[in-house]
Amino acid sequence: MGFKVGVQTYEWLAYANRFGSSFTWKQVCYECGQAGFAGLELTGGWFNELPAPEELMGFCEENGVRIVAFTGGVSSDEDLELCRRKLAYLAAIGGSALMVGPPGSRDVPDDQRLKVLNTFIERCKRLSDYCDEFGIPAGLHNHLWTVAETEEEIRHFLDARPIGWCPDFGHAAAAHADVMALLREYGRTIVHGHLKDTVVDENGNYLRFCELGRGNVGLDFAVILRVLQDQGYRRWLVIEQDQCTVTPMYDMAKNREFIASLGYEAALHG
Hints:
Elements: E1 4-8, H1 10-19, H2 25-34, E2 39-42, H3 53-62, E3 66-72, H4 77-93, E4 97-100, H5 113-134, E5 138-140, H6 151-160, E6 164-165, H7 169-174, H8 179-186, E7 193-195, E8 197-200, E9 206-210, H9 221-230, E10 236-239, H10 248-261
Parallel strand pairs: 1-2, 1-10, 2-3, 3-4, 4-5, 5-6, 7-10
Antiparallel strand pairs: 8-9
Helix pairs in contact: 4-5
């Protein structure tokens, strides 16, 4: 079996923040299943609302979906302990990976970025012990507006290898990284991945995220998926949009149609 394609749930949070609404974890899981996905990565504060693993698995089974990944951070000892709890929960529900976000860079002077990135690398080394304990890998989620934004910074982290890689192709392309070069060189370090498309202005600067195939940042998802397939990737990829065009469920149904149109219908069934 090849890789599997699911959905990332941040768009539900973005929609709620924009319109002053709210979603429960049950509603999000239900809508992901109704949009045609078998797996999801749950982000945000919903983790603290989840029931015992057995109850969660029962609900998810009823709705044809499963939680395969969580998001986390390592900026403090409290963050690391929360990551440990998430890894233990993932192990209990047959999860796949933990996505780890790097520190933000808005208040970091340019001459301090490498220092902050190296501190992040050292903390990820501590996280890797927890990964070994529970048998669940973690991966760096490269991101705009962080100290793991540029191609050089991504390479620096991946060369250090404290944990794996959770590439976000939309963020990497928006940061003017050579996505295909990174994928070909570091693809075998990937433990999880975010499929994301991006709209940029005439100077190549980020404007917004969008449905797969509708961006202008130069991402060819057919090629990206073929390279991953050729590399023998067998884990989860999740579609992340971050910003709504219509509603989260509608947008993700369109993203699902795009993946299916590339010939990966089977991957959507997990």
